[in-house]
UniProtKB/TrEMBL annotation:
GO terms for molecular function: DNA binding; sigma factor activity. Signal peptide: none annotated. InterPro entries: RNA_pol_sigma-70-like, RNA_pol_sigma-70_dom, RNA_pol_sigma70_r2, RNA_pol_sigma70_r4_t2, RNA_pol_sigma_r2, RNA_pol_sigma_r3/r4-like, WH-like_DNA-bd_sf. It comes from the Bacteria. SUPFAM superfamilies: Sigma2 domain of RNA polymerase sigma factors, Sigma3 and sigma4 domains of RNA polymerase sigma factors. Gene3D superfamilies: 1.10.1740.10, Winged helix-like DNA-binding domain superfamily/Winged helix DNA-binding domain. Residues 112-162 form the RNA polymerase sigma factor 70 region 4 type domain. Belongs to the sigma-70 factor family. ECF subfamily. Residues 22-88 form the RNA polymerase sigma-70 region domain. This is Sigma factor-like protein. One of its GO terms (biological process) is DNA-templated transcription initiation. Keywords: Sigma factor, Transcription, Transcription regulation. It comes from Eubacterium maltosivorans.
Amino acid sequence: MTREDILLRKIENGDRQALDGLITDYYPDIFRYCLWHTRDRAAAEDATQETFLKAVRFLDGYRHQGHFRAWLYKIAANVCRDGWRKADEEPLPENLTYDEAGFERAESDADFICMVRGLPEEARELVLLRFAQDLTLREIAHVTGLPVRTVQSRLRSALKKIKKQLLKGEICHEP
């Protein structure tokens, strides 16, 4: 039994501290995900808070079958999408700057942000979930509502497009 399973079982039995533990475990990952989809740190913090508020509100309706992480990402994706609609923002702004250690690596990794920005929105989301958030294909399928094979083929297509851009030297380089 995983830590997640234990915490969810305790939550079902009314243990509020188990809920705090679950939020503590997933907060950094959801926050980093929200940073990708918002213009600034404050908006990402708001989106992360809203994600966890919705998760707590709808936790009674969640049936644990090993997909809790994917369920959280699905909520975060919807919260961020709603934020774009309200603020009329682009999902990946031009000037991304982050202080998080994971993003330092992503920025230095062959202009990851520029490669992803050049993809269509649906492909961008798949690449982001797979490589920036390290979700499995099955978890991505759960988040997006697509079949696993579709996720796999679209991800492969997006990676081919990035490779083609790299070979042609079409990837932008930030100053």
